[in-house]
Write a structure and sequence with these properties.
heterodimer; A: alpha/beta; Nucleotidyltransferase, domain 5; six-stranded mixed sheet; 3 helices; B: alpha/beta; Rossmann fold; Alpha-Beta Plaits; 2 domains; nine-stranded mixed sheet; elongated; binds iron/sulfur cluster
Chain lengths: 110, 283
C-alpha cells in the first residue's frame, strides 16, 4: 500500500506539516517495496479549492492512506470518496509519523 | 449618471447617505437606488413596499457519467478545485465552482453540460412615486456576491440617475459595484479606524479612475486628521454630518433624516450638485 505524509520538506527527515491542502510536500511511501517519492505541492499558494486539488494528486499517485494534521471539509469528502483512509499525526518528522503508522499507533480520522 | 456610495468599512452610515440622497432627489426627478450590499441589504428598511423578485442563476457543470471516461482533464483545468476525478466517477464541489465554463471546453468527450443554479435574487419595488429600489440578495452560503451585484445593476442600467449602495470594504463586491460608476461618494467617520478604512477605499477608487469626494458622518467636530488626508489626496469633503443622538435614533427606526428634518434636503441636493460638478457633468 502507498501512504502519503504531508511534510515541510522533501525528505523523510523533514518536519511533518499539519495542513493538508497547503503542505509544501507530499511524501509518498510504498510500504511494500519501501520506495519513497516526494511530490511538491503546486497549490501551496493557491487561492481556493486547494484541498480537492491536493486530493487529486493523491488519487493520481494511487495513495491509499493519508497521514496529516488537519484535512478540510472538501478535501475530506474527496479523499473519502476515493477510499483514501485518513490518519491524524501532529508531531515532529515524517520518519516519526512513518514509525507510528507502522505500529498502528495513529488515530484514524473519520 | 451613476453614483456609487462606498466606505472602507461597515457602520459608517453609507446607507444613510445613499437613502437620503435618493429620497431627496426623487422629490424632483426619477431616481433608482440599487442596494449592492447583497450579503446584508438594508435599504428596503428605509423604503418598505411590495417587491417583485426574480432569481439570479449561474450555470454549473453537469457530468454525463455514460460519456465520461475519467480522463481527468476537467479536474486539471479547474483552478478553483471544484472538480476531483476519482477512479470511478467525477466529484463536483458546487460551492467552489466559479461558473467559468472552462471544464466544458476542455472535456474531450463532450460529457459536460451546464445547468442553472440559483445563487440569489433581485427585487424591484417602487416605494415612492419617483423612486425605484432594486435590491440584490445573495442566498446564504453562496460565495458569489459578484454576479448578484451585476444582475442588480443591470436592472437599472438604462435609468437616468442611479445610486449604488456598495457593500463595505474594498473586496471584489466593491469593485463590481464601482465598475461603471461616474462618481463615488466615500462615507467615513472621524475616528482613526475610519481614516484608515477611508485610505483603503480612496486608493481603490483612485486606482479605478473614478472621481470621488468624501462625506464625514457622525462627526465629533475633531476631523483634522481626515481633513488633512483629504487635502493631501485632493479629495473634497462634500458634507459633514455631526454626531447627534436624534439622527442616530431616526436612522435606527428606519426613518429618513431628510423626511423628518426637511431642512436637510437642501444639503443633500448640494451634495448631489457637488457630485455632478466633481464628475465633470454640466450642472
Ligand atoms: S465551470 Fe469553471 S470553475 Fe466551475 S467546475 Fe468548470 S472549470 Fe471549474
Ligand atoms: S474531461 Fe470530460 S471525460 Fe474527462 S474526466 Fe472530465 S468529464 Fe470526464
Amino acid at each position: 500500500m502507498k501512504v502519503c505524509f504531508t511534510a515541510k520538506g522533501a525528505t523523510l527527515e523533514s518536519l511533518s506539516e499539519e495542513r493538508f491542502g497547503r503542505a509544501p510536500f507530499f511524501i509518498i511511501i510504498d510500504l511494500d517495496s519501501g520506495a519513497s517519492e516526494a511530490v511538491q505541492n503546486p497549490y501551496v499558494e493557491g487561492a481556493g479549492g486547494v484541498g480537492p486539488k491536493a486530493a487529486q494528486i493523491l488519487i493520481s499517485h494511487d495513495v491509499t492512506a493519508l497521514v496529516s494534521g488537519q484535512v478540510g471539509g472538501n478535501a475530506r469528502e474527496a479523499l473519502m470518496a476515493a477510499g483514501i483512509e485518513m490518519f491524524t499525526f501532529r508531531g515532529s518528522s515524517v520518519n516519526d509519523a512513518l514509525e507510528q503508522f507502522k505500529k498502528n499507533a495513529l488515530q484514524r480520522s473519520e | 449618471m451613476k453614483i456609487a456610495v462606498a466606505s472602507g468599512k461597515g457602520g459608517t452610515g453609507k446607507s444613510m447617505v445613499a437613502a437620503n440622497l435618493a429620497y431627496t432627489l426623487s422629490l424632483a426627478e426619477p431616481v433608482t437606488l440599487v442596494d449592492c450590499d447583497v450579503e446584508e441589504p438594508n435599504l428596503h428598511l428605509f423604503f418598505p413596499g411590495p417587491a417583485e423578485s426574480t432569481d439570479v442563476t449561474i450555470p454549473v457543470p453537469v457530468f454525463d457519467t455514460a460519456a465520461c471516461d475519467l480522463c481527468g482533464k476537467c479536474g486539471e483545468f479547474c483552478q478553483f478545485g471544484a472538480i476531483t476525478v476519482l477512479r470511478d466517477r467525477v466529484l463536483f464541489f458546487p460551492e467552489l465552482c466559479h461558473s467559468c465554463g472552462g471544464c466544458l471546453l476542455v472535456c474531450p468527450k463532450g460529457a459536460i453540460t451546464e445547468s442553472p443554479v440559483r445563487i440569489g435574487t433581485v427585487s424591484v419595488s417602487i416605494p415612492l412615486p419617483s423612486l425605484i429600489l432594486v435590491t440584490g440578495l445573495l442566498d446564504t452560503g453562496s460565495p458569489l456576491a459578484v454576479p448578484v451585484i451585476g444582475a442588480a445593476k443591470a436592472r437599472a442600467a438604462t435609468h437616468p440617475l442611479v445610486f449604488y449602495d456598495s457593500s463595505p470594504g474594498t473586496a471584489c463586491p466593491v469593485i463590481e459595484t464601482l465598475d461603471g460608476s461616474d462618481f463615488c461618494v466615500l462615507v467615513t467617520e472621524s475616528t482613526p479606524f475610519g481614516l484608515h478604512d477611508l485610505e483603503l477605499a480612496a486608493d481603490v477608487v483612485a486606482g479605478m479612475g473614478i472621481p470621488a469626494g468624501v462625506v464625514i458622518n457622525r462627526s465629533d467636530g475633531e476631523d483634522e486628521a481626515t481633513l488633512d488626508f483629504c487635502a493631501e489626496h485632493d479629495l473634497e469633503v462634500m458634507m459633514t454630518v455631526p454626531f447627534d443622538r436624534e439622527f442616530a435614533a431616526i436612522q435606527n427606526q428606519g426613518c429618513l433624516l431628510c423626511r423628518e428634518h426637511p431642512e436637510w434636503q437642501e444639503r443633500f441636493r448640494a451634495l448631489y450638485s457637488g457630485c455632478r460638478h466633481l464628475a465633470g457633468v454640466s450642472p
